[in-house]
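Researcher: Batch entry, complex prediction.
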Amino acid sequence: MKTKTNDVILQTVTNVVAFIIILFSLRLFFAGHYTPGGGFIGGLMTSAALVLLLLAYDIKTVATILPVDYKIITAIGLLLAVATSAGALLFDVPFLTHAYDYFHLPLLGKTSLHTAVLFDTGVYLVVIGVTMTIIQTIGVSE
Amino acid sequence: MTLLHWAIVSPFLFAILIPFLYKAFRNVHTGWFVLLLPVALFTYFFQFMSITKNGDTVKETLEWMPSFGINFIAYVDGLGLLFALLITGIGSLVVLYSIYYLDKKKEQLHNFYVYLMMFMGAMLGVVLSDNLIVLYMFWEFTSISSFLLIGYWYHRERSRYGAQKSMLITVFGGLSMLGGFLLLYLMAGTFSIRELVMQSDQLMTEALFLPALLLVLLGAFTKSAQFPFHIWLPDAMEAPTPVSAYLHSATMVKAGIYLVARMSPVFAESSVWLWLVGGFGIFTLFWGSFNAVKQTDLKGILAFSTVSQLGLIMSLLGVGAAALHYSQLEDNIYMVATLAAIFHLINHATFKGSLFMVVGIIDHETGTRDIRKLGGLMNFMPITFTIAIIGAFSMAGLPPFNGFLSKEMFFTGMIRVLEMDIFNLDTLGMIFPILAWVGSVFTFIYSMILVFKTFTGEHQPEKLEKKPHEAPLGMLIPPIILASLVIIFGFFPNILSERIIAPAVASITPSLIQEGHAVETDIYFWHGFTPELFMTFGVILFGILLYLLLPKWRKVYSWIPDRFTLNSFYDGGLIETERGAYNFTKGYMTGFIRTYLVYIFSFLIAVLLFSLWFKGAFAINTDDLAPIGVYEVAIALLLVISSVTILFAKSRLTSIISLGAAGYTVSLFFVLFRAPDLALTQLVIETVSVALFLLCFYHLPPLSRHEERMRFKLGNALIAIGVGLVVTLFAISAYSTKLYDSISSYYIENVYEEAGGKNMVNVILVDFRGFDTLFEICVLAIAALGIFSMIKLRLTRGKEG
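Model: Structure tokens for the complex:
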């Protein structure tokens, strides 16, 4: 794609909106256990923000802003999910058994910490990685 | 996990370390580190002898998948211990030998020892598992590691061919065996061998007994290279010689024998078992030894000789099963066959192992294994020659070596077949002693060829690549140890009998032992002038005669044209299968996505309609329907309009936007029906996929509607309408028939109690049905990598031209 484009409005809006979408996606991700959201939707939402960046700018620019290899993100996500599931075996309970408890954390107050979040982080990363790998590959393939 | 479990899996764990050791200590041969493990394991297993000697066993259970009846039960009895000692003992010697055989600078030692350790662990698992599924798992591990080891020098075409052949044949057998195990499970409800043995009387009467028997035997026969599956073993000789000595003569190929021996208490009462195991065994003995004489490659001779010796042990196990039918006899003389089988198994490991190592030395020091080029090596390699004489004479069945003792016992077992009056053995049983004798004559001949064509005769230095000289000491120690065992077991066989042979025989024939029959294990040389002795005289006489006249009768081998050999059937079959599969695939893979969509959708319509009709599942239930409001109607109209727009759109952009509109409308439906998670997901998915479409938009060819033929359009319309109809019917009947109570209530009750969450959908995703999610993200990741590699590959290939 050309570097000089006419998308001033789109680019300006994107600069602001992309961050809001990402923040919102993080919120969705963390809220997942109690209200609508979770790793799947959160990951998709984050990817949507990244796709918006891709549309407003070009792949090269985005690659310089976020120099990440999304295949590696996918791999890390999978590893995290499998490791969390397998971690249960160390405590002599079946694969994928989750544990949770309530803690008093500074600033946040009473918070539930749940190993499912770790698993969900894996899902989150895989979804971002997969979506972005596919879109980038197809986008570059000219 | 107990120490025993750790011992079984320790080779696997050690294999993980090997590449690091290899990297860290490049100056030290990796084999020295590896050597420690089999030696330690051998010492460890040696201690079990004091337990099994008294007929006791050790059983340690590790729960793995108890709900499926699959547990890792380590079980040590006489038979298992004998194999464990063979595996670790011969393993130690082979590792020591390989240190000198494989050059640390040229070879990829880390690969080699990883495969070797994998094999050792797998083999220990096979012989020490009581659970059939665990046994099967380890069994396939041995096939895989054997495949990797045969293909170790993968740049050679023959190695790859041999590896593939062994893999295809043994895995075919392995899968059949798994089938047999599942049938046994269906009948008895257990995967435990010991529990199966307890139910063996009842199993005999089941209809599935015979299929199970045949399938299990297929597994054993392919693994132990019995006729007609033996063809993989000669080609497996492409592996480095330590591997041939270890896997393809001493241990892995005996896994089939182990299986037959282990399953004997379950199957052996059957006449089919006796005839199949005995018959295939004795014919393999004959066929293998007959073909060994024809070989010109030293390893080829040993390969066929291994085939024939495996047949010998197999036939003894088959004939030994007859003893079960004579349990009324005071002195059960038919048990001698089983006894001979175990004794010969040990002897074969010693003499064949040493012979393989000798051949490795010859190959290593002269650069060839072709007996037509070799000769007169006696003067250059006196020690190797001595070892070869001991090994080969023991194999030929000459006194005073251990091979003579077990060969005599083999003859005894075969002659006693004549006295049996069951299963037509009194008439057809004649073939056992006859084939046994003929096979032994050929065994004698190839043993002589092995020694005298190599070490005596004229030395032909011009044909050799290297100047022959004696091997380094380290390479000689392992075969010397084995050769001394040949002599020690020859003179003092009874050091084995009470400690090892009797407990092993007891594990094969537990019912006889229970009835009070003792295993008669007193082994000695002189039995007087018995028929066996005269058979041995005959073997030696005819053997020498035929050996001397070999050039005169050699042409019998050309009687069977190459076209009719088993190998050409195998090769031809493989080529035909490949061609057939290729043509079949080419027939329906057109390369157009459109065609594939037609397949998928027509199949969907056909299968769903059929099952709706077949199960009589269609029903309409209009009770309990929510009222239809203005919103629903409006959204439905919007959906219809956007879908129809896609059909008639003139430009691609319009199609994409209408498709997005349809998707967004569906998510509005979700909002309306209070499914926020679904609505959110649908919205985001729709956004991302529209963006994706826009991204590829530039690369797609212009939208054309030039396919205007009526037939084409009609076909499309039919499929489209069909899919719509079927899905609608399904949706209606899914709503109208409730076969089971809804599981929602379970989740509603337990989401907070058990998982501490309030969003049911997400808790189901990450917790209750976490496995689904785990596999889903795996699939996603694979799909992404697939797309990535396909597009990138196409791009780079495009650049190459």
